[in-house]
Design a protein that fits this description.
By secondary structure, this protein is mainly α. It has one domain: Chorismate Mutase Domain, subunit A (Up-down Bundle), CATH 1.20.59. It contains four helices and no strands. The longest helix has 24 residues.
């Protein structure tokens, strides 16, 4: 397969990843509302650990580097926490 075609496929996958990140981040309001109702802190470190362990295991099962995937999800978790702080009036996001 020519490099140009491979790069086009990568571009399409990148667009899918961005859509999924957007969907994940869009759930921040629902998560924030549920946390408020359950009197949980915005930064739920126990849940963060559960998510990171789960994705590391899933990555390993797929032959991916679990630690590297955890780093990606640490960023995603931070994005969601930042968004929740903003929605609660505690942050400084646009």
């Amino acid at each position: 397969m020519p490099l140009k075609e491979i790069r086009k496929k990568i571009e399409q996958i990148d667009a899918q990843i961005l859509r999924l990140i957007d969907q994940r981040t869009a759930l921040a309001k629902d998560v924030l509302d549920a946390k408020k109702a359950e009197k949980k802190p915005i930064n739920d470190t126990d849940q963060n650990k559960v998510v990171l362990e789960r994705v590391a295991n899933m990555a390993t099962e797929r032959g991916l580097d679990g630690e590297e995937v955890k780093r990606i999800f640490e960023i995603l978790i931070k994005m969601n926490i930042d968004r929740q702080h903003e929605m609660s009036g505690e942050g400084n996001l646009p």
